[in-house]
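hey so i finally got around to running the thing on that chain from the lab meeting. sorry it took forever, my laptop kept dying and i had to restart like 3 times. anyway pasting the input first so we r on the same page abt which one it is
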Amino acid sequence: MHDHHREATDAVVADVRDREEFLACVLSGSVARGWERPDSDVDFVIVATEEEYDRRRADWDLQYYREDVSDRDGVYADGKIVTHAFLEEVAENGSEPARSAFVDCSVEWTGDPAIAETIAEIPVYPEDERIDRIETFYSQMQAYRWFVDEAAARENPYLRSYAATQLALFGGRLLLANDRTLFPYHKWLTRELREIEATPNGIADRMETLVEEQTPEAAEAFVEPIEEYRDWETPEAGWPVRFMLDREWQWRRGEPGLEEL
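ok and heres what got predicted. didnt touch it at all, straight out
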């Protein structure tokens, strides 16, 4: 951690500790993970009492934001205000991005040890859903591989761009699921793929080429090493039916889009 990020963290902890409406201060984001740049902001999760949260929620005031935490220009503190009950909900039912937000996080201060115990339960891959997700992501990968070809045949620039990025997303998520690594949302997907060992050689570079070139050739160069990496679990009904159920009809089950899974 850079000295100015430590300075910013200490300033936020001192502020939160002195306010009775707050119960914990949790360092998260790129600084917690060791992925920060010198000019990165510092992310926090601030745990408030239920009463304070309800008061703030009524006013849409759920952000903790300060620019006076460091002498370094451009460095500021940005926090989300939640409750212990919210953390328990994430530990029980949170999406992968919601869980990933707590990977390598640091409880910088809390007056309630139970909060730290709950946070420790959050960044865990949902093992009981892993094979089902592998089948889903494999099917999405195959579908968007087809859409990349369709976009080229139809000379459709919108479909070309959309299909290439979705192919990159679900090919990447397939590899993350294989490694039991939580999806960190779009900003950090390529970085996470470079961090894990259980991937085909150079796959993150192939992903970036796919997104930049958006061609059938780049799509094949991305998908083929993934297909050959191991014998993947695939849906018995085939990927077209699985794509339809998971992508086109997921609303019937009251489920969010796959990007939020």
